[in-house]
């Protein structure tokens, strides 16, 4: 950035001093963009959209709601931003004029999904446009500040899941269903809705937002049980939390618990799924691997415990950050050192139940085992999870 000591970001008629996190992101993105612009013989990078667009939020901060345009001028090594509140017309038109005044000409790189109207303003100013995935590539690896924010959201998710485990561990069995004491000393059915509220309250208490993403048994729509039907002690209870922290970064955690397990297939599935995470971490220790390779390793490890093609197994791998699911997420994407990825594995237990676990890992340098961000143990028993 120009005036690196000041770390100012030009917002039209005003200047802003970005936070330490924004400075990190600017520097990281600038290193990727500068190399891309030089290779493509382009003069600048421009993106436009609403402030909720993750690529916009990644590139600038503290903008009001509405249309925004952001640019990286490689010649000046400077970030520029325009928002509707300081522009007479479209922010992209204002930004195009500014770039022209700076002597920029020729090709401008934009994300493939840049809005059509913004592209027209840039072309009308005399620029040629070409698409790039440079910002997506930059976002696929995280700065130290980003990792800290994701870890904080993950800690909130862990608090929520542990709260659910505590409720399940203390639940009584009444007429073959789970029940808990309410605030008046009465016993009430423990429903998915009641358990979800407990998770959300714990997440809020931990300083994050549930963001409408908390779910209990999210994959059992065909089950005769409903959101208002009491949970059964002998059936797996899938708990999924994807909270958003105050700075917009997400965590992602899934655990499966059984109050009164009789072993059998659910134990076998649990051992297979938990072992798949160990295998994937070992794979990522040896160096970068593609999303497809890691997902295939997770599934293969589960199947190695005697499950065949008729057994339903699902393994997904993706990045996590300003979105619950972001790059690397395409099968061919490489998971490079610095990536933060969410591994999610599910396998069918019976006609109405699945066992599912998800964790978030920070991929470090080759030869170093990826770090599992704050999360409770993989235990199937609620009481055992709370003890570890």
Radius of gyration, whole Å: 24 Å
Separate helix tally: 10
Widest sheet, order of strands: 2-1-5-4-3-6-7
Provide the number of structural domains: 2
CATH superfamily of the largest domain: Creatinase/methionine aminopeptidase superfamily
Strand content: 15-25%
Q: What is the highest CATH level, the class of the largest domain?
A: Alpha Beta
The span between the termini is 46 Å
| Coarse structural class | alpha+beta
Sheet having the most strands: 7 strands, mixed
N-to-C series of helices and strands: EEHEHEEHEHEHHEEEHEEEHEHEEEEEH
- How helical, in percent, are the residues? 25-40%
Mean pLDDT: 90
How many beta-strand segments? 19
Which regions are unreliable across 5 or more consecutive residues at pLDDT < 50?
1-8, 11-15
CATH architecture assignment of the largest domain: Alpha-Beta Complex
CATH fold-level topology of the largest domain? Creatine Amidinohydrolase
Domain Peptidase M24: 214-365
InterPro entries: Creatinase/aminopeptidase-like, Pept_M24, Peptidase_M24B
Keywords: Aminopeptidase, Hydrolase, Protease
Pfam family, one: Peptidase_M24
Task: Explain the layout of strands and helices.
Layout: E1 9-11, E2 14-16, H1 20-40, E3 44-50, H2 54-59, E4 67-73, E5 78-83, H3 91-101, E6 107-110, H4 116-124, E7 128-131, H5 134-139, H6 144-170, E8 172-174, E9 177-181, E10 187-189, H7 192-205, E11 215-216, E12 237-241, E13 253-257, H8 265-285, E14 289-290, H9 291-303, E15 313-319, E16 334-335, E17 340-350, E18 353-362, E19 371-372, H10 382-387
Parallel strand pairs: 1-5, 3-6, 6-7
Antiparallel strand pairs: 1-2, 3-4, 4-5, 8-9, 9-10, 11-12, 12-13, 14-16, 15-17, 17-18, 18-19
Helix pairs in contact: 3-4, 6-7, 8-9
């Amino acid at each position: 950035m120009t005036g690196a000591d000041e770390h100012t970001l030009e917002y039209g008629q005003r200047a802003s001093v970005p936070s330490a996190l924004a400075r990190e992101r600017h520097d990281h993105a600038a290193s990727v963009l500068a190399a891309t612009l030089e290779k493509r013989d382009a003069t600048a990078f421009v993106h436009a959209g609403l402030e909720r667009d993750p690529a916009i939020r990644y590139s600038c901060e503290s903008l009001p709601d509405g249309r925004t345009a952001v640019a990286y001028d490689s010649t000046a090594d400077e970030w520029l931003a325009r928002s509707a509140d300081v522009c007479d017309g479209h922010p992209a038109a204002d930004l195009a004029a500014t770039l022209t005044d700076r002597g920029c000409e020729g090709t401008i790189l934009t994300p493939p999904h840049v809005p059509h109207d913004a592209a027209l303003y840039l072309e009308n100013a005399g620029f040629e446009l070409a698409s790039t995935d440079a910002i997506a590539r930059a976002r696929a690896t995280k700065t130290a500040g980003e990792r800290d924010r994701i870890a904080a959201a993950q800690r909130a998710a862990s608090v929520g899941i542990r709260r659910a485990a505590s409720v399940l561990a203390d639940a009584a069995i009444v007429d073959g269903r789970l029940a808990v004491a309410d605030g008046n000393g009465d016993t009430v059915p423990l429903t998915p809705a009641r358990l979800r509220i407990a998770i959300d309250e714990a997440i809020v208490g931990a300083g994050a937002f549930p963001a409408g993403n908390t779910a209990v048994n999210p994959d059992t729509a065909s089950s005769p049980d409903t959101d208002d039907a009491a949970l059964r002690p002998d059936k797996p209870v899938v708990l999924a939390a994807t909270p958003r922290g105050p700075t917009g970064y997400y965590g992602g955690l899934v655990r499966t618990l059984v109050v009164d397990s009789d072993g059998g297939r659910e134990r076998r599935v649990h051992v297979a799924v938990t072992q798949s995470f160990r295998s994937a971490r070992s794979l990522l220790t040896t160096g970068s691997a593609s999303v497809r390779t890691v997902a295939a390793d997770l599934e293969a490890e589960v199947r190695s415990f005697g499950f065949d093609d008729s057994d339903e197994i699902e393994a997904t791998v993706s990045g996590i950050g300003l979105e619950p699911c972001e790059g690397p997420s395409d099968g061919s994407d490489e998971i490079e050192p610095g990536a933060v990825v969410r591994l999610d594995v599910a396998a069918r237990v019976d006609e109405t139940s699945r066992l599912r676990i998800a964790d978030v890992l920070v991929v470090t340098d080759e030869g170093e085992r990826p770090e599992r961000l704050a999360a409770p143990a993989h235990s199937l028993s609620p009481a055992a999870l709370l003890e570890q």
